[in-house]
Design goal:
Elements lengths: L5 H22 L2 H17 L10 H22 L7 H5 L5 H16 L3 H12 L4 H8 L3 H18 L12 H7 L3
Pfam families: Sigma70_r2 (PF04542), Sigma70_r4_2 (PF08281)
Family: Belongs to the sigma-70 factor family. ECF subfamily.
Organism: Methylobrevis pamukkalensis
Length: 181
């Protein structure tokens, strides 16, 4: 990155009081206004190479400050106030260990399926193709696709010893350990 010119640096410094007044008009709080100006100055300095000498530096700086303000405003709308940590405590994530083991078991079971069943399961289950699209890709009737898919799902269920939908996902011990208090 090339060092900004002296005129660029002097121009930015000269605009600080005006930038601060503009920031105050946007947010109404001196400490936030100072933060806005500082952020705008940092962005301007980092983007100094994109500024064309001889153009309106003041307008460029005010645009940067305005964009910083509205970006922070949008970000703030997405943030959740959680001073006491209650919201964060409810957001728990299961460990990945069981998921990795489940995926490994699934991949092994998938490998035990005949190629035509594995192909259909992959096309419809993983790639999201419709029955008609899968039939066209495989060059077989839609009924054949449905039949292969049904047999593939049944075989996977048997190989993985899945008796109920609750058998998929975190087990009871994991759910209890990650439950919020």
């Amino acid at each position: 990155m090339a060092t900004p010119s002296t005129s660029f640096r002097d121009g930015i410094v000269a605009e600080i009081p005006s930038l601060r007044a503009f920031a105050m008009s946007l947010c109404g709080k001196p400490d936030l206004a100072d933060d806005l100006v500082q952020e705008a100055l940092m962005k301007a300095w980092a983007a100094s190479a994109s500024f064309s000498e001889g153009t309106n530096l003041r307008a460029w700086m005010f645009t940067i400050l305005r964009n910083v303000y509205f970006s922070q405003l949008r970000k703030k709308k997405r943030e959740v106030e959680d001073a006491d940590g209650r919201h964060a405590a409810r957001l728990s994530v299961s460990g990945e260990q069981q998921a990795r083991l489940d995926m490994s078991d699934f991949q092994e079971a998938l490998g035990q399926l005949p190629a035509d069943q594995r192909e259909v399961l992959t096309l419809i289950g993983a790639s999201g193709f419709s029955y008609e699209e899968a039939a066209e890709i495989c060059g077989v009737p839609v009924g054949t696709i449905k039949s292969r898919l049904n047999r593939a799902r049944g075989r996977l269920t048997a190989i993985l010893a899945i008796e109920h939908v609750s058998d998929i996902g975190p087990d009871a011990a994991t759910m209890a350990a990650t439950a919020s208090f």
